[in-house]
Amino acid sequence: MPFTIAIPTTGPTLDARTDPKLPHAAYVLLVDPESSAFEAHENPAARADSHPGAVVAKFLLARHVEVVLAHHMGPHPAAALVRSGVRVHEGRPGTTAAELLALYLAGELPQLSEEELAARHGPHRHGAHTH
């Protein structure tokens, strides 16, 4: 089974706290929803000099992620993911990756639209800090 759920975290295990900001998370866990098996990846966007949101979106799309559990990612990566068919569901700051995964599997994390994700970051302005 592919690792189809992405969870941004502060560490490389399911016991790690989730990071509400996907582009700046230290790790991204890729999880198989059927077995809860996972792969921990250092987030390539965390080291990016510019456009960390684009970096993490490309990373997730290259791995055929189907669902992202995150609270914030910026409008551009949100648009890239949503338009590619990736479903983004509400993250819960303060939870562990295992707790967040359990909430998702129980159907307790609402799916977010591109507009809802963009509204969390504010409108994109050229010359402003972007993701």
N-to-C SSE series?
Answer: EEEHEHEHEH
Name the CATH superfamily assignment.
Dinitrogenase iron-molybdenum cofactor biosynthesis domain
Largest sheet: 6 strands, mixed
The helicity comes to 25-40%
CATH class: Alpha Beta
Which regions have little confidence, pLDDT < 50, spanning 5+ residues?
124-131
Global outline: globular
- Structural class estimated from helices and strands: alpha/beta
CATH names the topology as: Nucleotidyltransferase, domain 5
Number of helices: 4
Q: For the CA atoms, what is the radius of gyration?
A: 13 Å
For the biggest β-sheet, the strand order reads 3-2-1-4-5-6
Summed over residues and divided by their number, the pLDDT gives a mean of: 87
- Determine the N-to-C terminus distance: 31 Å
For the record, the CATH architecture stands as 2-Layer Sandwich
Total count of strands: 6
Task: Outline the structure in words.
Strands 3-2-1-4-5-6 form a six-stranded mixed β-sheet, with helices on both faces. The termini are far apart. Helix 1 runs parallel beside helix 2 (75-83) and helix 2 runs antiparallel to helix 4. By secondary structure, it is an alpha/beta fold. The chain has helices at residues 52-62, 75-83, 97-105, 114-121; strands spanning 5-9, 27-31, 38-42, 67-70, 87-90, 111-112. Residues 124-131 have low confidence and may be disordered. The protein has a single domain, classed as Nucleotidyltransferase, domain 5. Strand 2 and strand 3 form a beta hairpin.
